Structures are given as structure tokens and as C-alpha cells.
Input
Amino acid sequence: MHPAAPPRRLVAVLAGLSCLLLPLLGHLPKASAAAENADQARTDSTATTANGGPDLDYLDTAAPAAGGPAVPFGSHQFPYAAGMLKPSGTQSALDQAVIKTYNAWKSAFVRKNCGNGWYQVISPDADHPYVAEAQGYGMVVTATMAGADPDAKTVFDGMVKYMLAHPSVNNANLLAAEQNASCKSVDGSDSATDGDLDVAFGLLLADKQWGSTGTYDYKDLAVKHINAIKKSEVNPTTHLMLFGDWSDSGESHYWMTRSSDWMTDHFRAFRAATGDGTWDTVRTAHQNLITSQQSKYASGTGLLADFVVNTNGTAKPAPGEVLESPNDGDYSWNACRDPWRIGADAVTSGDSASLASARKLNSWIKTRTGGNPDRIASGYHLNGSVFDSGNDMAFTAPFVVTALTDSGSQAWLDALWNKLATTSIDPDLYYGGSVQLQSMIVASGNYWVP
Output
């Protein structure tokens, strides 16, 4: 049990205090690119950088290479549900915009800082240099970008090796939530649910991409992780996600849940991978909670609170600080991811509940901002009033995903896409950059559920 779960990240307003940030260490060297990449390059650019490494901005990823990933980035093998929009412009241009952002994200945040063949994602704006959330993002992103990044499998396997070397003390098949600059687990060495959900999803992606007969049996690892999530991070009474494996029936957060952990599409993937009908029950419980929270507490906005309490009775937004901040009951630094997560399920599954929830969010934010993405604030009360007037990609980017769901939002979608595609990754802001990249992956039509 975690005695006092610390916040998962420092809020972005602290990002400017560089004295508190872990200095970013040297960029990873580019791996040498083989000459055969040349015939895949855009005719107006080169497929290699000056030092001979692959120029990921200009790799053509439409056709899978022999022995490469089964679903190379840009192959678009899994069309979205009928009626979903996509940003204006050619598909190639959309894909290249994602690759450019990925290249910058990888250079800024993917590291080999601790030896042992480990790769890890660094989080300079979090409360620790390495957090489970970041490792989960890294595994999902890397497996998805295979085909665009020729080193994806090497990097992914290094991330798996890191994950396996940092087990939770409570359940060895889960990932310890936080590591220090020496990559040593700290602060209880227990788990964080959002990181574990993405780790398992990333392993399922890897199994589909490369099979499970290599260095790691991705499928076996995924199923072990999924079963561990079910055992230690799902409340068996409510079927809702717990904060981590440290929250048990005698712990004060046991009847609480965090909205950014309600990853409906992940639950579908877990059901498909395991055949365990529990995941249908878990998915339905979360979809029902999303619908009811929107209806009861945010009927005009569709916004969800960072944290919901009283899940064993009448679930409601947190009345104040319950884990991280006085804004735990508001749309803040956790819930800001919800439009991306809800929208990702809506566009891939076409599920009516997810579509309805996504469209509520899209309709409100489009009207609230007058169609101008620059007016998306970094904190809202559930009634739509602003409590933090700053701007951050963690809040702006997710709305590009919900915009896909509304046939009347093409101009709004294009404005959001252009904002994301022209905003450089800030190497000090891992959180916003990671949400930006993953939102772009979905919006460009490159997201798929294994």
C-alpha cells in the first residue's frame, strides 16, 4: 500500500524553473541507415542526415519491407469507423507531419542513460526523471512508429528490458511507477495504473508487429501484464480502475478512480488478447461512468474530473484535493487527456457511447473557443469556466481527436491539426509533447487497436 501517493508530474507552470529540471542528457546517436533507404526518399529531399543516420522526416512508409513490421506506419491497414473526418491535405503530408514530430520527440526524450541495454523515456517536467506513464507512452509510440523508424524494434526491446528490470514490489508483473536519475525505483516501488495499461497495450502492438518468437515473447508478457492489472489495479466490486497496486480495500483511495485511466480501447484489446470477458465488464463500467458523469456534472461541457470519488455509491467529482491538487475535481492535468482517450475508442470502434461522449466534448470546446485552438486553456471547472488561463499541448492536442467524430467540424479539425503540426516539441515538456504526438498519430489515421 502506498502511504502517500505523490503527484505524477509537476504542473507545467513550473517548467520555466530550469533549476529544478533534470538536465537533458545527450541526444541518442542516429543509427546508420542502409543505402536501400535512398529509393524510399522523397524526391525533393534525402532519406539520410549529414552523418548518415536515417532522416525520419522523409522516409516513405507506405510499403512494408521484407521481414519488417506487419503494420508499418503509414500503411493505414485499419480504417476508422464510417463517417470519421481526417485533416485536410494528402495522406502523405499528414503522415510526414507525424514522422517529423516523432523524430523531435524521440530526440528529446528517448534515452539510454543507465546502461544495461535499457532504453527509457525521460520526463524532465515530472516529479521523477523516469515514470511509468512515460515508459508506457514510449512503448506504444515506438511500436506504432515501426516502419518509419528503422530502429523501432531495437528501441522497443530496450524498453521491455527496462520494464522487466523495474517490477512493482506488490505485483512483479507490473511496472514500478518511479525511478531516480540512476534508474533506481523509489517512493515505494509500487505501480501506477496508466503506465501499466499502456505497457500492456504496447506489448500487444509489438506482438502484432514482429511476432513473439524473438528475444522477448511479447504476447506472453502482455497477457501476464494484463492479468496483473486485473488482479491488482481493477476494483473487483466496481470494475473501475484503481490508482495503482498500492490501493487495497483498507486504503483511503480504494473507492476512487482517475478519468485518464479509463482507456476503453485498451480494454477491448485486453479482451481480444486474453478471451477474458471480465474486460467487457470493465469497459462497460467505464463507459457508463463517463456517460453518467457527463450527464450529472457537466451537461453543458462533457468535461470529466481528474478524479472521481465515492465509486461504491453515487460516484461524483472529487470535492477537493484527494491525491494531487485542490483541482482534483476539475478538468485539469489528468483529465486533459480524456478527449484523446475517449476519441481514440470512438474512431476505431465506432461505439455509440464513445462517439456520444466525444461529440459532447468537441461541441463544447469548439464553441467555447470560437474555433480558435489558441484559446484552449490549461484548466477548466466542469461548468466550462477557466481556472488556469495558460496554454499547454497536453490540453490543446487531445481535442484534435474528438474533432474527428463530428462531420460539421472540418474547419475546426484543420485548425487544430495545423496548430499541432506547426508546434515544435519542447524538450523541457515531455508530458505535453507526448500527448501532442499521440494525438497526431490518431488524427492522421495511423492509430490501431491490436
